[in-house]
Amino acid sequence: MVASGRGSNLKSLLNALEGHPTAQVAVVIGHSAGVGALGIARSHLVPTVVIAESNDLKAWLATLGAFKIDLVVLAGYLKLVPPEVVEAYRGRIINIHPALLPKHGGRGMYGDRVHRAVLDARDTISGATVHLVTEDYDQGSTLGQATVPVLTDDTPESLAKRVLGVEHRLLPQAVLHAAREGHPVPFEFMENGP
Ligand code: GRF
């Protein structure tokens, strides 16, 4: 798992994988030791690695190799993964985005900006997308999406909260499907899944 933020998706993933026979979070990578997700990892006794320079190719490959990583999960990682890492792990890196791609994605579209764009566009439905990671922001093929309604009195904050709730169910489903198939696959989001 790779994260720059508070790590709520990490928490939901750790819960969903508890007791799983094969899938586990082997290491959490962040850009600084203060990243919330790294604190969550430490409290769950999951190893952490700080890669301060996002383009530090040697650090990426050494870390992913040392932990024998099969699947790289980005959740709130704000930098681009080096193209050489994308190439080496092509089809095995996924990201979660807090909107229904291909709308409201791309460089600079993160956090409240995404939800503000949804409200500005007067969309009536938003949600979250899990997609494969390529060399460009939010461009890889979509694997699964979960929707939430946009309410007339929503603010970026209230919409973000509703979307985050569904992210916590969508991302574990993506990972569990990948674990079952041996690699990330397109899947149907199940409301009552993990
Ligand atoms: C989530 O909204 C995710 O979709 C986006 O960044 C946020 C990360 O939240 N890419 P958290 O750190 O998992 O709480």
Quickly describe the structure.
The protein is 36% helix and 16% strand. With 194 residues, it is of the alpha/beta class.
Report on the structure:
The strands form 2 sheets. The protein has a 4-stranded mixed sheet with strand order 3-4-5-6, with helices on one face. The mean pLDDT is 96. The longest helix has 26 residues, at 156-181. The protein has helices spanning 8-17, 36-43, 57-66, 83-88, 112-120, 156-181; strands at residues 28-30, 48-50, 72-75, 93-97, 125-132, 142-149. It contains 6 helices and 6 strands. The chain is an alpha/beta fold and 194 residues long. Helix 2 links the parallel strand 1 and strand 2 (48-50). It starts with 7 loop residues before the first helix and ends in a 13-residue tail after the last helix. Helix 1 runs parallel beside helix 6 (156-181). The protein has one domain (2-181): Formyl transferase, N-terminal domain (Rossmann fold). 5-O-phosphono-beta-D-ribofuranosylamine binds at residues 3, 5-9, 37, 75-76, 96-98, 128, 164, 167.
Secondary structure layout:
Blueprint: H1 8-17, E1 28-30, H2 36-43, E2 48-50, H3 57-66, E3 72-75, H4 83-88, E4 93-97, H5 112-120, E5 125-132, E6 142-149, H6 156-181
Parallel strand pairs: 1-2, 3-4
Antiparallel strand pairs: 4-5, 5-6
This protein binds 5-O-phosphono-beta-D-ribofuranosylamine.
5-O-phosphono-beta-D-ribofuranosylamine (GRF) binds next to α1, β4 and α6.
